[in-house]
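Running this now, will post back.
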Amino acid sequence: MALQPSLADRKKLDRIIYIKRSWMLYLMLVLPMAFFLVFRYIPMTNIVIAFKDYNMFRGVWDSPWSGGKWFAQAFTSRDFGNALRNTLWLNFLDLLVGFPSPIILAILLNELTFKMYKRVTQTIVYLPHFLSWIIISGIATKLLAPGGGIVNIAIANLGGKPIDFLMDKTLWVGTYVVLGVWKEVGWGTIIYLAAITGINPEIYEAAEVDGANRLGKIWHVTLPGLRPTIVVLLIMNVGRILGSEFDRPYTLGNSLVIQVSDVISTMVYRVGIRSFQFSYTAAIGLFQSVIYVIFLLAANGLAKKFGERGIA
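Update: finished.
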């Protein structure tokens, strides 16, 4: 009587058969894995610069250790405190205004019955996503210039006085947020429209049979169907609340509004790259990354606590 293979032997045999069938897929993964290893993980070893008195002529590993000196200097620096406050405030405003905007726009587009108008509108609103902040800042400077900008010319024709949108601190913050929403709202809308198409049409029909009007279907069908997508994107946005873009505040900012426009990324560039204080700015970058991870894990844990799937 032949012996039956054990469960472990069967699993091993199934694994060998699977690898023989899928070896080309594993081979295709070699280059992406090599890319991340060489250009992402190996450079992370240079994070030790934050704990050293880095000397570019001696190299990373031969530079003397400094302990936590640079972290102490950062936490007692007025410039770092200002950059940290601006980063949190601008990202909070982006989250408050920019996060619900694509949800609202996606719902409005989904309710349109004229398909051609819907497609044209969708195309127009997501085109700014493909423009760099260099281009957008140039357009904004021309449009909002207090002397010859189109916006201020229109205000003057209506009897008002020219407004320095990019020179006044309060108005600069509002302009910063509005331009960010204008640039990214269309791209976020695509994600939510894709999620809406995944909702079963029979649920809408059942809601209509129950007497739900258009607003009722949005509230009881569309928004619950979007909830998993909203939660995942909200977690990612909350995690990035201490992160900061470089090109957006750098190109829109100027010396008159530096108190509100200077964020961690622009400070790292100004102090680290232009002033050659690499260890100091590496410590700031490491602090930012650690807080980023903490916010991300906290938001993910909170989502799971309320019964959502989260991101991991």
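The chain has one domain: 73-305. More later if anyone needs it.
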